[in-house]
């Protein structure tokens, strides 16, 4: 006989929301303060910043390492450890104002961030039933965005009004993440895993469409992360305050619409949701190449960010086609696949930018077109054994 639930708030979905709020408190602060801290305190030039950004992406590329750590830790415990690394790396950043110091703290912070993101996807897909997963994933995005808004406000209050220096800003935000991680570790029970997960790398031929869409998603994301913001500054002269307002607007839009987008994905299906996303991104990237008005460029930037929220559909698509025991291993592998482009695109497309910024965004539109064509292969009702339209044709032969 099961014991009665004495604490109904100790639920997996609430734990996921608490941890989702902990991440941007550190990561948003690290991003918001990085450029000023690196230049003012560590005398960074473009060379050092490029190396730092490459180092930051390495843990994402090596996210498959999560699979081997599962030999030592439960996924839920490893998620707590990852959050602690994220918070500790952020908290220590202000105490090491040097090139090597910033490189090392960035690696610690990034290791925690990327491993937690991998584990969050895996745990969410295991803990949440398929009928409500899209809406719950949208709720997690909204929770993280709301925490990011509060973090930007906290930084403004601490920096402009209280005149705190970088050491205290990094220590405050990183420390909050550490405290939340410890509270979650102590307050929540270890939730059962309904299916034992593989403790080795899993690459299955029948998941090829998911792998391809994941790779293309990572490639397109680099165009947005690296070059869209750069366009705002170089072409339209956006100030630090202008960029910060764009970040706040993006986070606010996620708070308002991410849950609704998740609900929409659940209603219209993954194939239709991805078709909408990729069609919209083709138009947005083409717009970046042609835009001449600063206000219109800002509108494209916000739309770009909002369309990416529809990537929830890619996660729920995998949840429907995956064998339950493959979820953790494939989450690590797919996160590495997603980051392959992060190693190549910033540098190679940076050289292309020198010749023609417009070409960078036309290539982004072409990537979105490839994703659109691939998404046409997703069945209306994907499931294990019917991962793509070719699988049904093969079964009928």
TrEMBL record:
Superkingdom of origin: Bacteria
Gene Ontology MF terms: transmembrane transporter activity
A Pfam family reported for this protein in Swiss-Prot or TrEMBL: MFS_1
UniProt entry keywords in alphabetical sequence: Membrane, Transmembrane, Transmembrane helix
Ranges that cross the membrane: 14-34, 55-73, 79-104, 137-156, 168-188, 208-231, 243-261, 273-291, 297-318, 330-353, 359-379
InterPro entries: MFS, MFS_trans_sf
PANTHER family noted in UniProt: C-METHYLTRANSFERASE (PTHR23518), MAJOR FACILITATOR SUPERFAMILY TRANSPORTER (PTHR23518:SF2)
Protein name, UniProt field: MFS transporter
